[in-house]
């Protein structure tokens, strides 16, 4: 086997004492992950109503989305390290409680600043919750076939949850109030919390094995991401050549470069080079970051297109996204899950990215005339099938083969790529759309932005083909994951 084509699985045998409650534990993990992913988009459909009530401008409306995804993505690596340090079950339950409290604060907001702050706080606790959820999944399911089924469900949630959020947002906005798009998280978190206490198990390292927290890395990495995203959002009112935008971009790049250098020198780095330095893992993470740019942009623009241009109600808008949800679930559970053990991962990722790029390209032909059946529906199906093919192999490649001390941060890296790609993509594409719309109309602005999204999706296909060279696992293998690597004499079950 060549050194540049490592397998994505090891060759160990399954543990005889697999947790008999593991599938019920998957339900709890899936419920929490659904809440986190759903909240990235549930406010999309509520956004026009919230914008009117709280007096947001078009240029700043995207901060309701971006404040969440940026705090989420910027702090995920820290959340992963906290999970490795104090235990994944503990951080999972802490994240659930904090997320519920932040959601309640957001639902009660009476100013745009309060809403932005609550959404950011949601992102903070999501950053604690998500990596522990994925890490618990990878340590619970180690048999390759079982893991394929579990990851199929997880992939469907990761992709379909965003679209489910749009449908739920439509129902709540139309029949209750936009604020219930935030309040709804409270009962969901409570159910997940009770299930976690009863069903989930975790192998927590002893004090001598717990990694320290890289707070300087947090400041450099999160500061750089905030600067870059804020620069993209301010480019529309100020212009790309303005001192403010250029200063933010340059400052963000400098901070991110300093973060990368510090990670090679820190005693306990936030993002260990050994995790991201692997060719396949790094390629999978980059593929995820690029792929979600167009998808998040599509959610934002199609919501406004359907409500503001076509005159759809919030509920009808949410239901109009059902084909996208169905396509993601179908591709994740019936195609990716079945082919993951037979094909190299890039033979799923690349066709998926090409399908999604084609779907986004269809939206460049939008006009102010009703075009749901002719443009939006085919686009949803293609994007849904494409993202369903991408999510599962990306998550599997990015989390396989890591040492137990890095399982939390490896899981966090996948979520970071998704949220950072979503936050930068939403800010960038919103700026492009609003800039073009000034002289050419709102719909033309959406169309141009979707053209950029299609181009970025093509970049994801190229990255996956060039960098992800892992082979398909051999028949009968189990995944080399944290559950097989821990020393029972150095770990405690909680």
Automatic annotation (TrEMBL):
Subcellular localization, as worded in the UniProt entry: Cell membrane
Topology with regard to the membrane? Answer: Multi-pass membrane protein
Q: Which InterPro entries match?
A: EmrB-like, MFS, MFS_dom, MFS_trans_sf, Sugar_transporter_CS
Pfam families for the chain: MFS_1 (PF07690)
Give the residue ranges for region: Disordered: 475-494
Query: Domain Major facilitator superfamily (MFS) profile: where?
Result: 25-472
**Bilayer-crossing regions:** 23-47, 59-79, 91-110, 116-139, 151-176, 182-200, 212-231, 243-262, 283-306, 318-335, 347-366, 381-403, 424-443, 449-470
Keyword line: Antibiotic resistance, Cell membrane, Membrane, Transmembrane, Transmembrane helix, Transport
Q: What is its main location?
A: membrane
Composition bias, Basic and acidic residues: 482-494
Q: Record's PANTHER family?
A: BLR6921 PROTEIN (PTHR42718:SF46), MAJOR FACILITATOR SUPERFAMILY MULTIDRUG TRANSPORTER MFSC (PTHR42718)
Protein name in the entry: MFS transporter
